[in-house]
Amino acid sequence: MSQPSLPFPEAPIVPPFHEGAATKAALASLNAWYERALRSGAEGGGLTLAVLWGGYGVGKSRLAAEFGRRVGATFLAGPTLSGLPPRSALPLVVIDDADQASLGALFAYVNAALSRPQPTLVIGRSRPGRWGGGEDETGVQDLRSRLMGGTVIELDPPEQTAIIQVLAIALRDAGLTVPPALIEETGGRLCRRFVAPLTIAATARRLAGPGKTPRSLLEQALKSNPEQCG
Questions:
Q1: CATH topology of domain 21-154
Q2: What is the rounded CA–CA span in Å between residue 181 and residue 28?
Q3: Domain layout of the chain by residue ranges
Q4: Portion of the chain with pLDDT greater than 70, in percent
Q5: DSSP H helices in 117-194
Q6: What is the chain's Cα-based Rg?
Q7: Mean per-residue pLDDT over the chain, rounded
């Protein structure tokens, strides 16, 4: 097994954009919402707001990044939201980890999204009807109502075939040569989250060294990350 000689700290393995069935379905919903939002103009009524949600590691941020790249987007992080929402010169505003924002800050941004003609996409790990737990109940219910009044899109976990394909790409990008049959076998043991093959590839790259076979290396990577196994 080969491993590149790097004079600098290893760069992170960037997740590839993979259009499996789950991703294609969510992307089609995003495209349909975005076209409706642009046509609606300043009519409001929730048409310019969408919520993309799905479990940890299923590819929400990567999907939003690809969608934003195609249409042009300003990206914001939920935990750092504060003050009044700025106006963006780009067509779309994306708020990642919006479910981790403070109630007041997210409220301001959601209200802005509902009153402006600019489409806004907010992203979280759970259905928006569950956001804001532990905060002021009246404000939480109002926020949830406004979020649920927008277009709600769920991103399902990726198919196992997608996990295998991403593992192959991640291992290649890590500079590791692994037989296709072993990649398929290993990928079939991983959970259906894109973070799983990326974690295994990064661990394998870190553990690689003289005398280690591809199988022993991947077995060690799997044992080091039991939470990534299905």
A1: Rossmann fold (3.40.50)
A2: 32
A3: 21-154, 160-228
A4: 87
A5: 137-148, 160-173, 180-187
A6: 20
A7: 87
